[in-house]
Design a protein that fits this description.
With 223 residues, this protein is an alpha/beta fold. It has two domains: 5-16 and 87-222, Rossmann fold (3-Layer(aba) Sandwich); 18-80. It is 42% helix and 13% strand. A six-stranded parallel β-sheet has the order 5-4-1-6-7-8. A two-stranded antiparallel ribbon has the order 2-3. α8 (170-179) links the parallel β6 and β7. α1 packs across α4 and α5 (92-101) packs across α9. The chain is globular, with a radius of gyration of 17 Å. The relative contact order is 0.17. InterPro entries: HAD-like_hydrolase_sf, HAD-like_sf, HAD-SF_hydro_IA, HAD_2, HAD_sf, PGP-like_dom2. It comes from SAR92 clade bacterium. Keywords: Carbohydrate metabolism, Hydrolase, Magnesium, Metal-binding. One of its GO terms (cellular component) is cytosol.
Length: 223
């Protein structure tokens, strides 16, 4: 496949951060003397951010009088435990290495706040490997708006049509399509059962991270 830059969503696409979020949630639940939660009960809620996780774990939302204090407490716990259990999804280090070997810049476009993104990438030894990292603080609008992706392509000096963007949520695909990029729906991520990924209008749907390398590189060599 021909492309000049490869961009990833972060949580649920490049990195499996769910174990850290779940570990931190259970520490919070323990503090508040609430029943612990199993990974299978909350894993796909990671894509909804801290508010979605708190709703799933504690059953509270922004209307709760202590919601924002508890949210800050949860995020502090997460920050302290970031990268404790996080890992690259299977096969993706091979993809990153192939990009680097072929002088194809790769980067990250995420809705995760800068504070947590930078801390996570440093812990995962990815800060110096990513050619560009775009967080909500860098733009006026976040995904599904295309602005963050357009900024990434500008900083890489690569036209959007020559970029591939991979994400595990419909907002990622909407942002990529609106930016004029080809898109890959990451079926290996935190995709909810009722998401109907086939209707996201992605250029490609990739069910497993282990086979992404073949889609991007092996097939290109055979053609």
């Amino acid at each position: 496949m021909e492309f000049k830059a490869l961009l990833f969503d972060l949580d649920g696409t490049l990195l499996d951060t769910a174990p850290d979020f779940i570990y931190s949630m259970n520490l919070l639940l323990k503090r508040h003397k609430k029943p612990l939660i199993r990974e299978c009960e909350i894993r796909t809620s990671v894509t909804d951010g801290s508010e979605g996780l708190l709703k799933k774990g504690l059953g509270i939302d922004s209307t709760h009088k202590h919601f924002f204090d508890i949210k800050d407490e949860y995020l502090d716990i997460y920050y302290e435990n970031i990268a404790k259990k996080t890992s690259l999804f299977k096969g993706l280090n091979e993809v990153l290495s192939a990009c680097e070997k072929n002088s194809i810049p790769w980067g990250i476009v995420t809705n995760k706040p800068l504070k947590y993104t930078n801390h996570l990438l440093e812990k995962m030894l990815l800060s110096n490997r990513s050619a560009v990292t775009i967080c909500p603080e860098h733009t006026k609008k976040s995904k599904p708006h295309p602005e963050p992706l357009i900024l990434a392509s500008d900083l890489l000096s690569v036209a959007p049509r020559d970029c591939l963007f991979i994400g595990d949520h419909i907002r990622d695909i909407q942002a990529g399509n609106s930016a004029g990029m080809r898109t890959i729906a990451a079926g290996w991520g935190y995709v909810k059962e009722d998401s109907n990924i086939e209707k996201w209008d992605a250029t490609f749907i990739q069910p497993r991270s282990e086979t992404l390398f073949d889609l991007l590189f092996t097939k290109a060599k055979k053609s």
